[in-house]
Amino acid sequence: MVDRTDNVAEISVSELSSALKRTVEDRFGHVRVRGEVSGWRGPHSSGHCYFCLKDEGAKIDAVMWKGTFQRLRVRPEEGMEVIATGKLTTYPGKSSYQIVIDTIEPAGVGALLAQLEERRRRLAAEGLFDAARKQLLPHLPGVIGVVTSPTGAVIRDILHRIGERFPLRVVVWPVRVQGETSGGEVARAIAGFNALPADGPIPRPDVIIVARGGGSLEDLWGFNEEAVVRAAADSMIPLVAAVGHETDWTLIDHAADVRAPTPTAAAEICTPVRAELLADVNGLSRRLALSSARALEARRNDLRSLARALPAAPDLLATPRQRLDRAGELLPARMEAALSSRALLLGKLATLVARHSPHAELARRRGRLELLGARLTSRRANTELAQRRAALETLGARLTSGRAHALRREADRLTAGRQRIAASGERLARAFAISLARRADAVASVGKLLASFDHRNVLARGFALVRAGSEQGPLVRSAAALVPGQALTLEFADGTAQAEVAAASGAEARPPAQPARPVRAARPKGTDPQGGGQGDLF
Length: 538
What we know:
CATH 2.40.50.140, Rossmann fold, alpha/beta
């Protein structure tokens, strides 16, 4: 049997995958697929989304790039039925095919309503729609914050209605009220109004109106997002939701403190009618004036009644005047009696003072002193004196013994001190002798080192020190520096000698030149005027 596969060309796995990819993309191109979202986990850390679309009999992988996901008006959720439009392609890394989604939308209004109902039940279970969370609107707000589009007819209607009813300050936070970013902008606007300080440059509103005109369910979907609902529920400023027409309901209507059927109705709810307030104030002013007049007239009538019930002024003063006259008649007699009693009391006090005068007290003290003197001379005084003398002698004996003991103790302390001083002197002498010996050894070592560096010792071994000219001339360090006829001074260990260069020295070795004539006799080494400085040695 013949194997027919021998003539088939071999291709690599990558080539086969590329061919399949081109075939699938050329055959199908863009497709529109209806299915249920499965395996939805939200965007990946890269921002891309990976999930599946399935129906009763099949499932296909789906990919949504980051830019496409950010443009979506309605975000997919697990189990949502959607219609996806995209390009069918393959993924060689898994040997599978997938759809790269360009657009995705819910499959009809029913899917959106089901998603909306599920979200409403979940947020209601958290208590975000409870009536206990609702706040009362201020009766007369000073500042109203409006979250809406600054270019639409809604803001004009609100401003016009507020201007008609009760002109006050309005702060507008511009947002998009439709599109994929509208929900996030509305949530940030509500949180931004709540974050404004009370005394900042931008006034903090007393009430917030979130407003938008009517539209379809898809147009109003941004106000059904969870972030918007949570921002409305967490707002510390009372919030009025005026989204759509009277028949339009969104989740922010449930979370808001008050729902207005239209934006114009929201302006009416938040502001009273200035004319009605003025009429009420005028009516209350008239009632206050009438009530004050009636109360004043009643008090005046009561005062008249009380004045009629009071007695006349002469009748009231008659009895006090009679008592005053009676007291005037009794006053002289009473004053004489009081003076007499005071004089009697003064006499008694004078007698008492004389009895306790300083002279009397001095006489009594002198008598006691004389009595004490007599008792001092008596036998009892002698006995006390003997006892005091014995006690004094005892104290003298104790003082003598204590002084002797203290003297002995001080002598012992002085003896111990002398012993410590003597021992310290012996240790000091030994330490001084040891230190002196160490210093002598160090001086001897330094002397030996100094002698080893003395150039005279080198000259004693047969070397000579050569100078140009006189004994104070410079040292000659090289034969090339000599010129014929130049005078030299040679220093030896036992003196110096004069010499003259016979011929110039070259690079080759030559016998030393004999001196032409000695200038002067060698003299002892100790007569060197330079003190024997060390130089080049030959």
